[in-house]
Amino acid sequence: MVGRKANAWAARDATGHLSPYSFHLRDTGIEDVVLRVMYCGIDHTDLHQIRGELTSNTKYPLVPGHEVVGEVVELGSEVKKFRVGDIVGVGGIVGSCGECSLCNSNLDQYCSHRILPYNAVYKDGTPTHGGFSSNMVVHQRFAVKIPEKLAPEQAAPLLCAGVTAYSPLKQWMGCNENVKGGIMGLGGVGHLGVKIAKAMGHHVTVISSSDKKRKEAMEDLNADAFLVSTDKDEMRTAANSLDYILDTIPVFHSLQSYLSLLKTQGKLILVGAPQQPLHIQAGDMILGKKTITGSFIGSMEEVQELLDFWAGKGMTTMIELVKMSYVNNAFERMEKNDVRYRFVLDVASSNLE
Ligand code: NAP
Ligand code: ZN
């Protein structure tokens, strides 16, 4: 059976400009669910991808979107996990080998055969397309249940941005009132990082590129401290004070001044994905026995855990809901650092044609 037709918005070339595009979904496999997409978050990775910044062979037309919330409208014959009508989420991966030691340890996102939601090729040879689309087909392993208590548009940013902060903070720091952390870059990932770190009991410092977000960081996000990274006096005063920094900055930045904020044996966790190599001075690492690590989204288990944790605590994401016709403006504003803090597309009520 040929899959159903989907209406979407796609980038056609590295200008990244999106316009209406239609395609046929891949055939519904026995373990697949078909979604009617309701909402989709806009992540900075989508901006990197539509511009061809992350891979040398970006495949156009490219339908972005990997913070997808939708209603199940069709099920493969072997799907036990969901029912028609369930509200489910899809995040940063849609496939893996399912057999290697990483997949067997719920670390599919690190599987060398992982399949990204777009700009990739599915097992049947068809291109993958993301959530800026009326419909999506996904293997049940890569979908999670959105808790009833959580509004679907609120859940969208948790599926990638949220778990990107949650996974490394849980692994390296956990719930601990003695931990002092820094969140670098107060955007989509950063604002959820602050909320998650606070919920884990950490003392949280926001490290921002300007003073503009100070008031909102302290009052709306309940951060404990705020540092402007270009203010040398503030940075000097905060030297050797943090156990970790979660670096979410999407553009090139020198790490030297940030590393000075870490205590001895502190950890810099890279999640932002600038195109250019980041420079470090060996001495800055050696003399403080510091660690730099990286982290890619989170496991499906962690995504579900975060959604349940969020719903259980009645936490909120800070989003600006927009229609698909606004998507090019949204990317422009994201690039200018003009969003508080995540655009979410109201796909279901947008005209996609
Ligand atoms: P975003 O919403 O655009 O936020 C990025 C933040 O970085 C901005 O709010 C800004 O915070 C700061 N920034 C500093 N200099 C900037 C500049 N020149 N242009 C834009 N922002 C600047 O982005 P996001 O969606 O949170 O994503 C952040 C990065 O993480 C991207 O590189 C994305 O690809 C990556 N990412 C990685 C993963 C993963 O699995 N590792 C998952 C999701 C996203 P201030 O105003 O506070 O300085
Ligand atoms: Zn694998």
UniProtKB/TrEMBL annotation:
GO MF, one annotated term: oxidoreductase activity
InterPro entries per record: ADH-like_C, ADH-like_N, ADH_Zn_CS, CAD-like, ER, GroES-like_sf, NAD(P)-bd_dom_sf
Look up the record and name the cofactor or cofactors this protein needs. Zn(2+)
- Give the family per the record: Belongs to the zinc-containing alcohol dehydrogenase family.
Task: For this UniProt record, give its keywords in alphabetical order, as a comma-separated list.
Answer: Metal-binding, Oxidoreductase, Zinc
Stated name of the protein: Cinnamyl alcohol dehydrogenase 4
Asked if the keyword Magnesium belongs to this entry, the reply reads: no
Tell me where in this chain the Enoyl reductase (ER) domain is found.
16-345
Q: Which CDD domains match?
A: CAD1
Originating species: Abeliophyllum distichum
Q: Which SUPFAM superfamilies match?
A: GroES-like (SSF50129), NAD(P)-binding Rossmann-fold domains (SSF51735)
- Superkingdom per UniProt: Eukaryota
Signal peptide residues are none
